[in-house]
């Protein structure tokens, strides 16, 4: 308006039309003056030239123009210090970013945007507000951290006419919340200015401009009231600013974002493919690492996309997930390279992985984004450097070894690292640069795809080679397997023969030779190992049962022993064979009259010491648990020794219970065991039944194969005895219903019937 007024003055005082146009030409040049200092120099030069041509051509007739010229000089000098962008058309997208010709202004203080805009539009230029030039996009570093809000101003001159139906302004990403005013009217806002939580500091703002709000052909003022979230940074930090047709602006943004989404869909397909490969072949863990890495990168890139705001998820949770992914992405990739090329873990890698796990846990439990940002910039990103060094070490060593796969991965890594470096510098506001990791990752995917193609080609070559002589190799392999099977069968026959011979030695030793008609003894044995020899089935194991009769001081006793040798199969059978041989020798020797002048306690002690000495000579390679005892026929008094054998059970009046409750003696064969020898006794009543068994009665599998559970409740055996009424066969059947046998199984039953006259010794 001032320039039109100046031209009107020159016309009124008689300036010729062609000379007035020279001033107009200067006015047009004025809009391109870069700053106040250049404005003054250009103004002085141009003004002197125009003044000389216009004024001194007719000094006498134009002396009266000097006051007008002086007015023009003073006012124009003041206006020339303002940086106003002149827009030629709003039918296209016009950049509002700072240039050498025009810039933005910022005042780090709270100002009423409406009052300020109205004052400016009314011509009040000097409002005593300390505005500073501000380059957009870019952050403004605050000298005072207590400042929370700032006013950002952009002045522009709109064209006279345009065809666009709707206009919009694009403001890039601001440092969190904002209210935006055009000519004093609120056209858009993002976030709650009173909230302390971050809400949108990476959101690109696009605000529609109401029709008729822009002043055509005149100065307009755009005022942004922005509230920071981070301590020292405020302003329009990334992206770009623009004004123009709203459809074109929206289309430009969405086309860029949807291209990124399309790439993310491709990456998702790649990641899912690798995960499916891992599910089909669990040994190839590199597929798992690469698949997880790709999926996480897709999620991270989506969280950097503007489409995320359409999901309605709270900003704080999106940022939490974004920082978590940043903490785990690089470690996963480093471990992928390590596993792919089969390198062992290094201590430094273990330390780094542990640190990044701690960072991830902190992100999970905390909701302070300022802490997220501090840890990310000062710890996480610097930790990527040693990770990168480890990866490059792996790849370069493989490249030196002429590994083509490593070379392709190295190229993809270098491209991706370069893009990530630019993105990191942009995130730190060191440079203003668009995010390109999403695009550069395409090269990395292609490098991996090429590697897979090479692997596929190599695999096909190997398959073709195998197909050429497959029949020959199958025949050769079949012959080898046939020979191996024949050898195994020969060994099996030899082994079964050894088992058979051993069982022939044990069976006569394990015998129920009790002839008493008062004390009845019954046996039941089920060895864990069964085998076939000459079409007959036999058993062999470490459990043994022996009974007999001795006479001590003219009193008759029934003697018994139940043993469980260490080990199964042939090893256990060896211990049972030793016990059977020694104990039967003791029984034979006890028939000598000179050996009958002993008390039952003395007889048990000597028998125990003899067994202990024999088994101790094996130097720890053979132990055996036993219950060794005597029952006096006339009184039913039971004398017994328990050497780490399951406790003895009394069955009386339909109730089963233990007659002992503590371990007093270790297995026979353990050195110095005799020092702890204790001979126990128990008075049996008529009708009482004593049941003794090996630990196979308790070691039962009571769960399925997927959930293997071993019985640890020794009272279960009491229930089985009661359920079977102390009948050994019935007790065995009840045990099988409760669980499966895992060890050799043997039971000894002693029944006291003082009034019975006949004997009924039977073998089960």
UniProtKB/TrEMBL annotation:
- Molecular-function annotations in GO: phosphatase activity
Q: Which SMART domains match?
A: PP2C_SIG
Q: Which residues form the signal peptide?
A: none
Q: Name the InterPro entries for this protein.
A: 7TMR_DISM_rcpt_extracell_dom1, Bact_Sigma-Reg, PPM-type-like_dom_sf, PPM-type_phosphatase-like_dom
Coiled-coil stretches noted in the UniProt entry, renumbered to this chain: 449-491
Supply the alphabetized keyword list: Coiled coil, Hydrolase, Membrane, Transmembrane, Transmembrane helix
Pfam families registered for this protein in UniProt: 7TMR-DISM_7TM, SpoIIE
Q: Where is the PPM-type phosphatase domain?
A: 539-738
Q: Which residues cross the membrane?
A: 33-52, 59-79, 258-280, 287-303, 323-341, 348-366, 378-395, 407-426, 432-453
Tell me which Gene3D superfamilies the record gives: Galactose-binding domain-like, PPM-type phosphatase domain
Full protein name: SpoIIE-like protein phosphatase domain protein
């Amino acid at each position: 308006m001032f320039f039109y007024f100046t031209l009107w003055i020159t016309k009124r005082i008689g300036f010729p039309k062609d000379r007035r146009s020279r001033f107009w030409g200067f006015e047009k040049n004025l809009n391109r003056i870069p700053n106040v200092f250049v404005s003054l120099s250009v103004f002085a030069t141009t003004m002197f030239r125009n003044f000389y041509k216009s004024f001194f051509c007719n000094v006498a007739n134009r002396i009266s123009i000097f006051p007008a010229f002086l007015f023009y000089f003073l006012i124009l000098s003041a206006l020339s210090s303002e940086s106003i962008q002149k827009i030629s058309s709003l039918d296209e997208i016009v950049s509002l970013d700072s240039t050498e010709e025009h810039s933005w202004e910022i005042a780090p203080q709270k100002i009423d945007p409406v009052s300020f805009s109205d004052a400016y539009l009314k011509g009040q230029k000097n409002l005593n507000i300390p505005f500073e030039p501000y380059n957009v996009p870019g952050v403004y570093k605050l000298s005072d951290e207590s400042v929370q809000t700032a006013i950002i101003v952009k002045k522009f001159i709109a064209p006279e006419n345009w065809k666009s139906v709707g206009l919009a302004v694009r403001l890039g990403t601001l440092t969190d919340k904002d209210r935006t005013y055009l000519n004093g009217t609120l056209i858009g806002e993002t976030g709650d200015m009173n909230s302390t939580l971050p809400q949108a500091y990476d959101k690109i703002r696009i605000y529609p401009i109401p029709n008729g709000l822009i002043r055509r052909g005149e100065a307009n003022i755009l005022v942004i009231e922005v509230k920071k979230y981070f301590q020292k940074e405020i302003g329009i930090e990334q992206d770009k600013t623009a004004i123009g047709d709203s459809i074109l602006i929206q289309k430009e943004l969405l086309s860029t974002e949807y291209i990124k989404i399309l790439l993310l869909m491709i990456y998702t397909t790649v990641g899912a493919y690798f995960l499916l490969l891992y599910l089909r072949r669990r040994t190839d863990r590199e597929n798992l690492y690469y698949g997880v890495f790709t999926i996480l990168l897709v999620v991270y890139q989506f969280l950097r996309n503007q489409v995320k705001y359409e999901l309605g998820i709270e900003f704080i949770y999106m940022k939490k997930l974004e920082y978590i992914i940043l903490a785990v992405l690089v470690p996963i990739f480093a471990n992928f390279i390590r596993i792919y090329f089969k390198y062992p873990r290094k201590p430094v890698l273990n330390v780094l992985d542990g640190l990044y796990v701690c960072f991830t846990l902190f992100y999970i439990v905390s909701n302070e984004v300022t802490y997220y940002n501090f840890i990310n910039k000062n710890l996480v990103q610097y930790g990527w450097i040693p990770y990168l060094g480890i990866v490059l070490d792996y790849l370069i060593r493989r490249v030196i070894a002429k590994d083509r796969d490593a070379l392709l991965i190295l190229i993809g890594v270098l491209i991706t690292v370069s893009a990530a470096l630019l993105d990191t510098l942009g995130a730190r506001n060191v440079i203003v640069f668009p995010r390109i990791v999403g695009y550069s990752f395409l090269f990395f995917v292609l490098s991996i795809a090429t590697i897979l193609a090479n692997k596929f080609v190599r695999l096909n070559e190997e398959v073709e080679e195998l197909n050429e002589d497959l029949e020959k190799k199958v025949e050769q392999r079949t012959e080898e397997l046939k020979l191996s099977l024949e050898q195994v069968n020969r060994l099996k026959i030899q082994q079964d023969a050894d088992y058979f011979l051993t069982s022939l030695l044990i069976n006569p030793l394990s015998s129920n030779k009790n002839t008493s008609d008062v004390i009845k003894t019954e046996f039941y044995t089920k060895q864990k190992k069964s085998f076939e020899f000459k079409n007959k089935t036999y058993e062999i194991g470490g459990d043994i049962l022996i009974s007999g009769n001795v006479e001590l001081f003219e009193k008759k006793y029934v003697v018994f022993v139940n043993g469980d040798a260490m080990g199964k199969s042939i090893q256990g059978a060896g211990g049972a064979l030793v016990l059977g041989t020694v104990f039967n020798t003791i029984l034979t020797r006890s028939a000598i009259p000179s050996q009958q002048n002993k008390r039952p306690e003395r007889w048990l002690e000597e028998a125990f010491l003899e067994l202990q000495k024999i088994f101790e000579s094996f130097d720890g390679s053979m132990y055996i648990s036993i219950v060794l005892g005597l029952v006096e026929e006339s009184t039913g008094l039971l004398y017994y020794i328990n050497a780490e054998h399951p406790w003895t059970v009394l069955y009386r009046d339909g109730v089963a219970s233990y007659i002992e409750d503590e371990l007093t003696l270790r297995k026979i064969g353990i050195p110095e065991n005799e020092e702890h020898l204790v001979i126990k006794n128990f008075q049996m009543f008529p009708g009482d039944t004593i049941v003794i068994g090996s630990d196979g009665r308790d070691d039962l599998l009571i769960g399925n194969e997927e959930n293997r559970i071993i019985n640890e409740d020794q009272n279960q055996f009491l229930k089985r005895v009661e359920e079977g009424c102390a009948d050994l066969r019935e007790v065995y059947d009840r045990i099988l219903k409760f669980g499966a046998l895992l060890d050799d199984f043997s039971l000894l039953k002693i029944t006291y019937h003082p009034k019975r006259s006949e004997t009924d010794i039977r073998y089960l």
